[in-house]
Amino acid sequence: MEKNNRGKFASKLGVILASAGSAVGLGNIWRFPTEAGENGGAAFILIYICCIILFGLPVMIAEFMIGRNTNADASTAFKKLAPGKIQWHWIGPLGVVAGMMIFSFYSVVAGWTLNYTVQAGLNRFNHMAGNGTENVFGNYFSNFIADPIWPTIYLTAFILLTHYVVAKGIEKGIERFSKIMMPTLFILLLVLAGFALTTQGAAEGLSFLFKPDFSKINSDVILSAMGQAFFSLSIGLGCLCTYASYFRPNVNLTKTAISVAGIDTFVAIVSGLIIFPAVFSVPGMEPSEGPSLVFVALPNIFRIVFADYPIVAYILPFLFYFLLVLASLTSTISMHELVTAYLHERHHISRQKATYIVTTVCLVFGILCSLSLGSGSVLNIGGMSLFDLFDYLTAKWMLPLGGLFIALFTGWQLERKIIWEELTNKGQLSFYGFKVFMFLMKFVAPVGILLIFLDQLNILSFS
Ligand code: PFF
User: Fold this and answer.
1) Which ligand 1 atom minimizes the distance to the CA of 328?
2) Cα of 316 to ligand 1 centre, how many Å?
3) Of the given ranges (90-94, 103-107, 223-227), which has the lowest mean pLDDT?
4) 231 CA to centre of ligand 1 in angstroms
5) Do 408 and 425 contact (CB within 8 A), yes or no?
């Protein structure tokens, strides 16, 4: 049942940019500075980089191998590689459900970034500021996200944008748009970092990011860093496995994974270089501000720091939120594709119909997630808004669970011959670290991930 009409990425650069596009997103520019800020800065970053190398990279390479070898969506892939062994077959559907849940709540935040881009474009932030004594940006943000109408409109616009790209297919949609959006994103990122480094908080920001205070390292920091690594690399749900099914046989999987993880980490750190110098430029502003750092603190910071240069104070927030829109879009495209490919190939629904189904279902759940943030909303389960519940269930449970099983599958089930062939492109490339790779897959990654779980279950209490 080989599918000959499956799309393929046309170039190796397209492969890297599309995969990096999936990885680079709100997780880097919004979640990473928040986590780093709350967990002590440089010490967190150091642990985060260790997690990327020890767990992230091996699992990413495994997803690439599974996807390319089977030429199939993430669910069919496990069936093909382990026929009859149903214990492995639910990894695919688990990832698909996680993908839909992430797509739903992630689009809510992506919608906020779209709104902030529009508001910045209309120069609303500079007018909004008032006399600076009240928390105008905080009030604006909480009123906006609790509003039943506007966030829904922006969220819908965002999901339709994602739909538009996915509907165009692999090469003409995902690859072409990634090739435009990712370089734009890199340029914006560097321009913004350049500006941030001219602020008076630059030295303090740099030392927060790069001078580790080892006394800050504890188990919570380690576990947060591990969770962040999974979310940020888009691993554990078969998303990169699906992308890899569109890779050509000559793509070097290890090199691609190293490039993607490298770009992802680079973007996360440069985002820190934008945000922390800016934060330290304003007295009273704290890096541990939390999730509102990007939506509440930053508009204020831009306004105060560049008060003498109104053009800069106008243009920088616009560029920053536009950057967030681009980064979110390349990520939501990959979540959409994960589910679309699954419906199309596993359930033989036409690709066009599958695309519409995913868009509609995620739109409904996205709207529910957004409405759940309104005050007094009934969309609360166990004291958690639907938005928070989806975030919690996916990032803390479903992705690590998927990652654990992908590692176990590769380490203990997948034929050595297949692993070797995928790593060396059937003997055409040399690969030196095979034993190390297998050791990471068999032991290091599963044990590390298991620790996250035990902590979530409060079975282990490290701190
Ligand atoms: N890696 C993305 C980010 O850092 O924003 C989030 C993400 C994308 C998670 C795609 C999962 C996924 F399948």
Assistant:
1) 5
2) 25
3) 223-227
4) 6
5) no
How far, in Å, CA of 262 to CA of 141, rounded? 33
The residue-averaged pLDDT of 69-85 equals 95
The CA 232 to ligand 1 mean position distance, Å, reads 6
Residue 315 corresponds to which tokens in the numbers above?
């243009």
What's the N-to-C CA distance of the chain in angstroms?
52
Q: Which atom of ligand 1 is nearest to the CA of 26?
A: 5
Q: What are phi and psi of 380, to 5 degrees?
A: -120, 135
pLDDT mean over 153-176: 96
* pTM, 2 dp: 0.93
Residue 402: CB within 6 Å of ligand 1?
Answer: no
Mean local confidence (pLDDT), 13-28: 95
pLDDT in tens, 205-263: 999 999 888 888 887 788 788 888 999 999 999 999 999 999 999 999 999 999 999 99
Domain contains 426: yes
Element spanning 384, H or E = strand 384-385
Number of domains in the chain: 1
Cα(31) to ligand 1 centroid in Å equals 11
Distance from Cα 185 to the centre of ligand 1, integer Å: 16
In a domain, residue 67? The reply is yes
**Helix (H, G, I), strand (E, B), or coil: what is residue 385?**
strand
239 lines ligand 1 (CB under 6 A): yes
463 falls within a domain = no
Q: Name the band, by pLDDT with cuts 50, 70 and 90, for residue 461.
A: low
pLDDT surpassing 60 at residue 449 = yes
- Does residue 335's CB lie within 6 angstroms of at least one atom of ligand 1? yes
Lookup: tokens for 353:
């119909």
Tell me how far apart the alpha carbons of residues 70 and 323 are, in angstroms, rounded to a whole number.
35
The tens digit of pLDDT for each residue in 372-429 reads 998 777 888 888 999 999 988 898 789 988 999 999 999 999 999 999 999 999 999 9
- pLDDT of 236 reads 94
- The residue range of the domain holding 196 is 3-456
In a domain? residue 461: no
- HEC per residue, 210-256: HCCCHHHCCHHHHHHHHHHHHHHHCCCCCHHHHHHCCCCCCCCHHHH
- Domain of 373, CATH number, reads 1.20.1740
Does residue 73 contact residue 245 with C-beta atoms inside 8 Å?
yes
Query: What is the spatial distance between Cα 103 and Cα 342, in angstroms, rounded to a whole number?
Result: 15
Residue 311's CB: how many other CB atoms inside 10 A? 8
**Which residue in this structure is represented by tokens 């996360």?**
268
